[in-house]
């Protein structure tokens, strides 16, 4: 994919706040019951792919410390640089890449588990069906997918963390559920989490699917 102007906008936004965004993170994402269930799912015992891994903390950290086979990609060179600095022993497991391009080029049945937290919402929604189609293809049989998704549809540019520029794009959660079902995914469960971010409470719905 040629770098879309909106995707480029996301990259620029994360570049401005990469270190401070990392510094505000805690272990809470990796302590979510639905994440633990995804990680320990009996059909998720092979290679894991994280789309939008950022600095690798905390998701990649937990996966790699459990001695699982892992690979993480992120659009932002600054975020990947932070991951390389923080986890030098695992440097080769992090790569700068755009998620649709990466999945498009990946071999079928490559990953037993795929996870994406707070990243697909930055991908222009015209690419969402293609992304999910490739995710389905590159998952192993009965492999599991964990992702978050906003409740409502939204698209546009705005300011974000520390007033940095950001681009958001998503269909409604209802659209996504119907689309993933049509693509062949089986819905397993959802989990709603609420926490403080950037000075306000935010609710996030996490969805667990199986191929």
UniProtKB/TrEMBL annotation:
PANTHER family: TRANS-ACONITATE 2-METHYLTRANSFERASE-RELATED (PTHR43861). InterPro entries: SAM-dependent_MTases_sf. This is Class I SAM-dependent methyltransferase. It comes from the Archaea. It holds the Pfam family Methyltransf_23. Gene3D superfamilies: Vaccinia Virus protein VP39.
């Amino acid at each position: 994919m040629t770098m879309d102007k909106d995707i480029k906008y996301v990259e620029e936004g994360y570049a401005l706040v990469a270190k401070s965004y990392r510094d505000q993170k805690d272990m809470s994402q990796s302590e979510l019951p639905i994440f633990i269930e995804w990680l320990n799912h009996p059909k998720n015992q092979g290679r894991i792919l994280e789309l939008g891994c950022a600095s690798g903390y905390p998701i990649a950290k937990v996966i790699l410390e459990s001695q699982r086979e892992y690979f993480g990609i992120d659009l932002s060179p600054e975020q990947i640089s932070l991951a390389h600095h923080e986890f030098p022993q695992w440097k080769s497991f992090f790569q700068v890449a755009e998620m649709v391009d990466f999945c498009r080029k990946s071999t079928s049945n490559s990953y037993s588990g795929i996870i994406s937290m707070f990243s697909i919402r930055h991908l222009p929604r015209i690419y969402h069906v293609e992304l999910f189609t490739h995710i389905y293809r590159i998952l192993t049989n009965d492999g599991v997918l964990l992702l978050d998704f906003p409740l409502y549809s939204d698209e546009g540019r705005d300011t974000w963390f520390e007033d940095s520029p950001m681009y958001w794009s998503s269909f409604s959660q209802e659209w996504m559920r119907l689309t993933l079902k049509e693509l062949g995914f089986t819905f397993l469960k959802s989990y709603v989490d609420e926490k403080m971010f950037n000075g306000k409470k935010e609710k996030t719905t996490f969805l667990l699917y199986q191929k």
